[in-house]
Amino acid sequence: MKKEKNEKEFDLKGMGKNSLFLLSIYCLLLILGDCSNEKKEAVVEEKLPNIIYVLADDLGYGDIHAFNPKGKIKTPNIDLLAAEGMKFVDAHTSSSVCTPTRYGIITGRYNWRSPLKNGVLTGVSKALIPNSRTTVASLLRQKGYHTGFIGKWHLGWDWALKEGDSVGGEGWSPNDYKNIDFSKPVKNSPTDLGFDYAYGHSGSLDMAPYVYVENGMPTSVPDTITVDKGKYTWWREGPTGADFQHDDVTPNFFRKSFAYISEQAKNEDPFFLYLALPSPHTPILPTEEWLDKSGLNPYADFVMQIDAFMGQLTQTLEKAGVAENTIVIFTSDNGCSPQADFKVLGEKGHDPSAIYRGHKADIFEGGHRVPFIVKWPAYIKAGSVSEKTICTTDLMATCADIVSTSLKDNEGEDSFSMLPLFTDPESAEFQREATIHSSINGSFAIRKGNYKLVLCPGSGGWSDPKPNAEGIQELPPYQLYDLLKDPAEEHNIADQHADVVDALKQELKEYVENGRSTSGGKQPNDSNFDNKPWKQLTVFEAK
């Protein structure tokens, strides 16, 4: 007997109009049934999107009104960015200070796998990232992107020297810059790490030398020394280029970015722009147009100025005709600094950390929970909100997914693609299971689900109880918080959940020893975790 056709099989011979209609409907259902894959493939098959990553400096989770409706700082342009894109309400930096987070963004790897175990670099520090390591920029350039960096680098580069092989200091003293030859190019700069174009300064805006470097070459030889000691406006004494004006650095970086976008939009190839702002970090320098606009203090004025520039960035994209297929990511490198003056802001009803404990430098949520927005009109539904825990290290894997390439075992070891979340904010395809945080003194925390295990007593940073405070050793060596029930981290429940503490400690141990938190072959960390300073800075081995 001839086998009957399956319901899903079609005989194309002699098809009438009705059959053709049914076939069309069937094909449409197949497409809709796999719409997420189709959309994902379309990212590759159609014109690849431009990608702009805007990193604010020391901006608190509670400073953006879209994330903190009780906040008093007006941020209409960034709020609109969130309304037109996707807001991530559980986003974190890998560290609560500048350099470590920037390392993770560029490499997709936790900074403590590098030689940098705690603290930050200075304006004269040598390059932290070796040229052999894949970065987001080098990965995208291989896929045809033009790659640009504009802003605060703070990952070290090697200044040309007048003599010897050492600058002669760590970068905290005015005498630490005398051996730099500003007339010669620097080595191991952003252009050696995959950026086609690079323009910026070496450290934070309060760290000398105050010199712009463009494509590896200082734009001027500093002939003056500047210093400021104001409450909000202070910066350290150091050599300053003739074209470097502290209060114009943020506006200058935005102007450069607008020009870069306008120029690259004329080309057929997509572009990637990493815009790393030096603000609202100290020196807190809103221009005259923005002074007193917030009614709070200069820090709030500075935040409002950044917001206005973000509105201009959106307008630039629209004018250039590339807004629809450009991904704009806006976030911060850590929580707000106490330099913003929490007391003054609090008296006026504003808390830069919102409901969360602590601030910049801390292992508490205020140190590393940050606003995070992704707008991509061609791909992301406006007004979307994701409650998934993400980390700033996730940029590398996300970009790899967008351009349909696989990361090697020694690339993006702590990076998970967020692309599935762009169409389904709670997608089970997003593979991050746990996230590691570190504080300024190198203390660890591991977050998994609602639980966060802190492996130190106190803040590990600048808020009380501080690492060296009197009586700190009398506090429990571990802190466990259920962030769903206790987002303010007020109730340490470590003694009630020994099983959770042990399980999270073991997972952290495996992440350290495997050299990765993603799946793949075991990788070496760049330096020894058994050295004395490491053990002093954490209670990782505590019983």
Give a short summary of the structure.
With 543 residues, the protein is an alpha/beta fold. The protein is built from 13 helices and 18 strands. The strands form four sheets. It has a ten-stranded mixed beta sheet, with helices on both faces. A four-stranded antiparallel beta sheet has the order 15-16-17-18, with helices on one face. A two-stranded parallel sheet has the order 3-14.
Plain-language structure description:
- The chain is α/β, with parallel strands linked by helices and 543 residues long.
- The protein folds into two domains: 49-149 and 250-433, Alkaline Phosphatase, subunit A (3-Layer(aba) Sandwich); 436-537, Arylsulfatase, C-terminal domain (2-Layer Sandwich).
- It is built from 13 helices and 18 strands.
- It has helices at 17-33, 35-45, 76-83, 98-107, 136-142, 249-264, 298-320, 342-347, 365-368, 395-402, 419-423, 498-514, 532-537; strands at 50-56, 86-88, 91-92, 146-152, 197-201, 213-214, 217-218, 224-228, 235-240, 271-276, 326-332, 372-375, 384-386, 390-391, 435-438, 444-448, 451-454, 479-482.
- The strands form four sheets. A ten-stranded mixed sheet has the order 7-6-5-4-10-1-11-12-2-13, sandwiched between helices. Strands 15-16-17-18 form a four-stranded antiparallel sheet, covered by helices on one side. A two-stranded parallel ribbon has the order 3-14.
- α6 (249-264) runs parallel beside α7.
